[in-house]
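Record pair follows.
FIRST:
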Amino acid sequence: MPRYYNLHTPAQLTYFCANVTQMVEDGEKPRVKFVSSDRTTDQNSLSWALYRQISSQLDCSSVNDIRAECKLTVGVGLLRASDEGFNDFYAKGLKHLTYPQKLAAMTFIPVSSLMGKKVFSEYISEVIRKYSQQGLSLIKPGEEAYG
């Protein structure tokens, strides 16, 4: 089963190196794939702004619940289509789970953070489309509501 690491801090890099070292010592042959982190801070801010807007309009859902739902119902499909390794991971590790179990897993499994700029743009567009079809009014940060 693939392992995903975010290497943004020295502590994360140390953890990664320790895990790879342990794998080698255990006789495994780790393969490492570096993924472009060409997403922008604006895209990340936009996703969190959307989660907050959706949550505020669906009073029964927290921001983290909405984030998990978006990751599962929108992000997983996009990532499976664009990343063969993630597709294999999902098929072997998550596909057999019930919907509530998959939703709970989204708290621990990176999805949107594995997407590059292009796929993440599709993700944002699909999240907006999905919730707009449910009657929610979503405004991108920086846009003004006219009316």
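SECOND:
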Amino acid sequence: MKTYEGLFIFDETVQEDRLKDLAAYVTGEIEKVGGKILDKLEMGRRSFARVMQKKESGFYMSVSFKLAPAQVTVLTGRLHLNDDLFRFQITILEPKPVVAAYTPPVAAKA
């Protein structure tokens, strides 16, 4: 299983009281295909840099999860069926490399 991060944008016409249901829908779909939710962050309404498909803003949510790589295409296929989900992007979270702490060289005594 790999670790993924998904950024989900819900349609601006969605009522704010339905956002909890849509967030539960997304996390439920991840779990249906065998994923495990690690973290979920609801980021609220944000304006787009430019108008997309006659829409000026959307409700953003970020979800970190573990999922088998073969199941990502199954998940994206299921997510495309929801009309309230305007856009989404799923990326692999690479583990951060461990960097040794810098130790300055010791000056030789003269």
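COMMENT: The longest strand covers residues 36-52.
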